[in-house]
């Protein structure tokens, strides 16, 4: 029964869509890995066994394991895996101490986050291009959400209206119109959202009240 249970556990671990690594907490030597880990490394399981986890999973400092050396009960962090071909792979790594047959081990779970990192980089580049484009325009650019709350303005707005960036972010677009015109502005914006208008012809008010 014990042997059958172990075989079942191995089968379950090998079918998980995440890397599973068992490390001796004293020697820091990799004792077991599943097939997913080998795929992440672009290697075979036999190539990984016997290596110190530090040299493959988080090549930073030899004695800086958050769980073994720094006193963390669990470590969830982004790391860089060094693959067999020398390339680097960003991973999300979770580490926790467990006991197997009376011996203390480290259970390490690895998830490939390269796609997420690539998406984040593309989003960051897109945002940079967006800001660069709008900062090069001489017109006032104000971007608000559907509730009318401002979350982006270009430098021209700051210069012309006299607010700081911290002051203007979170303000409502109606707050940028003179008090006497806000009721009309509210109606105009409602018509714009409904697709019945293309622009608001009302003046803006500077921070000091001037139009």
Summary of the model, kept short:
The chain has 211 residues and is α+β, with helices and mostly antiparallel strands.
Describe this protein's structure.
With 211 residues, this protein is α+β, with helices and mostly antiparallel strands. Helices cover 35% and strands 23% of the residues. It contains eight helices and seven strands. It has helices spanning 2-15, 35-41, 45-48, 53-56, 114-135, 155-161, 165-168, 182-193, and strands spanning 19-24, 30-33, 74-82, 88-100, 103-112, 142-144, 150-153. The chain is elongated and about 80 Å long.
Q: What is the mean predicted local confidence, pLDDT?
A: 84
Distance between the termini: 84 Å
Output the number of helix runs.
Answer: 8
Largest sheet geometry: 5 strands, antiparallel
Structural class from helices and strands? Answer: alpha+beta
Question: Beta-strand level of the residues, as a percent range?
Answer: 15-25%
Low-confidence stretches: none
Strand order of the largest sheet: 2-1-5-4-3
**Helix proportion of residues, in percent?**
25-40%
- The backbone outline, from C-alpha atoms, is elongated
**Would you count the extended β strands for me?**
7
SSE pattern:
HEEHHHEEEHEEHHH
**For the CA atoms, what is the radius of gyration?**
28 Å
């Amino acid at each position: 029964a014990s042997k059958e249970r172990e075989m079942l556990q191995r089968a379950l671990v090998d079918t998980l869509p995440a890397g599973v690594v068992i490390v001796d907490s004293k020697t820091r030597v990799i004792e077991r890995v599943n097939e997913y880990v080998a795929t992440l490394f672009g290697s075979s399981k036999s190539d990984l066994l016997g290596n110190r986890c530090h040299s493959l999973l988080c090549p930073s400092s030899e004695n800086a394991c958050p769980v073994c050396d720094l006193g963390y009960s669990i470590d969830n962090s982004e790391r860089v895996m060094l693959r067999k071909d020398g390339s680097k792979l960003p991973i999300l790594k979770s580490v926790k101490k467990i006991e197997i047959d009376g011996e203390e081990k480290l259970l390490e779970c690895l998830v490939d986050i390269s796609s997420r990192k690539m998406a984040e980089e593309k989003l960051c580049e897109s945002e940079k291009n967006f800001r660069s484009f709008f900062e090069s325009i001489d017109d006032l650019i104000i971007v608000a959400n559907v509730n009318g709350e401002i979350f982006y303005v270009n430098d021209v707005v700051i210069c012309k209206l006299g607010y700081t960036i911290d002051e203007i972010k979170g303000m409502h677009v109606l707050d940028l119109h003179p008090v006497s015109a806000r009721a009309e502005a509210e109606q105009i914006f409602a018509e714009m959202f409904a697709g019945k208008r293309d622009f608001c012809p009302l003046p803006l008010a500077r921070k000091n009240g001037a139009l």
